[in-house]
Amino acid sequence: MIDWLARRRYAVYLLLAAYFTVNVILRLAGPASLELDEGQQLFFAQWLAVGYDSQPPFYNWLQYWVVQLFGDTVLAVSLLKNLMLFLSYLLFGLAANLVIRDKVLAVIATLGLITVPQVGYEAQRDLTHTVGVLFAACMFAYFFVRTLLRPTALNYALTGVAIALGVLSKYNFVVLPVIAALALLPDRQWRARLYDVRVLLMIAVSAAIVAPHALWFLDHVDEATGRTVLKLTVGADGGRLDQIGKGFLSLAGAIAAFALPTLLAFLVAFGSALLRSWKAQSQWTRLIGCMFAMSFVVLASLVVFGGASNVKDRWLVPLLVLLPIYLGAKLEASGETFAGASRRFGAIVVAIMVLVPLVLLTRPFVMGAMGAYGKQNVPYGPAVAEILAAGKDGPSVILAADQQLAGNFRLHAPHIPVVIPGYGPLSKPFAFDATHPVLAVWRRNGKAMPKLSAGMRAWLDGNAGLAGRELDVRDAALPYHYGRAGDVYHFSHAWVYPPPGG
After folding, report:
1. Residue 391, C-beta contacts closer than 8 angstroms, at least 6 positions apart
2. How far apart are CA 176 and CA 58, in angstroms?
3. Mind listing the pLDDT tens digit for each residue in 358-413?
4. Which pLDDT value is given to residue 356?
5. How far apart are CA 113 and CA 110, in angstroms?
6. How far is CA 445 from CA 233, 375, 448, 477, in A?
7. What share of the chain is helix, strand, coil (3-state, %, to 5)?
């Protein structure tokens, strides 16, 4: 398969386009229940803002405009994700073809991206901002390499665009252009690209694009960084040495989870030739290898000096995404021939392209049969219908406990605005009178929860005059999608009207 694709200029991209189209179709065939990040996207798609929460807004902006075209639908969520993934592979493949002259190895490197679990599987399952940073990293890789080969003003400017989109996708992306620039210093030819006056154009373009969000960031530093810092330092309460030990174990685990499947796939395909190629070098392998080494230094410094004890493998996407290209360039530099390697690697890619959609399609059925319910098993659609039917008046606004719940209400009742506590600046004015109540909805892992959270109570006290009044809390218990007989998921809810004489 690989050899056939290599002989046809655009065949690999047609294959990828077909693959991602199938993924969209299969997602539409699944339950109309949104995963965590999917729900967040539909919640935030109610507004276009320069900043939202702890994640930069690039993916939210794209989702907003896709929702304007296709509505609050599963199609809007899945189509954007798969389009972004396809464009990521396209840019990655273009970069691979600039770095690797051998067309077969270039195709292998391009398709090697699917062997990275965070890209091949997790991105399809429920990642959004990581998909955005993957796209930006692939875009940066392509235009960075193009600029090294053809240092035109346009290429410098487009590299600046890629940097800006990366920073607007994930804040940790800022490390990538820094280490890329530092990795140029040992090479006399490429060092000149760094000292070129057109670097100022690249910086100016990037700064202009990032500026609106950067101003928001400066006014919301705690909001933008608090959750990330908490995730990084979770479990770091046993002393300094304990934190460093946990941090390095976590970092090693994250690197292994990211890189080992790809290394294993290349090892199965190329065997001992891959091991022998490890000593082979080229201008490209030295550059990328230097970038990897500096990435490790940055991550290690984050553990030792930044107090990090919990490094997530998906955070490594912008730093290690070039691994398949690096391995392809190593193999090319070795000068060996690889009989049967392309056939074996093609078999691995085909297996992944079959298994990933199959697993994602059947997962709700399997988990339901096992009683180990996932997010797509939760009966959001029936719950929304039952809860709305229970009220004598349609709500003017729905107060939801969390972003995923809010997004699922948007999916099934897109005509009703949804808010959650803590996002006041994103809320719009709403009617509140005897015929326009507020509907509050919350849950606790599918179990009955008659009591409101402090955040929801405070929101209702301040926005619906609830202070001092008791709520008439009701419970909607619906069977899971594909669940076992008798297993139900509980949604607590309350209709809130103005106080008498209010």
Report:
1. 437, 439, 495
2. 17
3. 999 999 999 999 999 999 999 999 999 999 998 888 899 999 999 999 999 999 99
4. 95
5. 6
6. 25, 10, 9, 12
7. 65, 5, 30
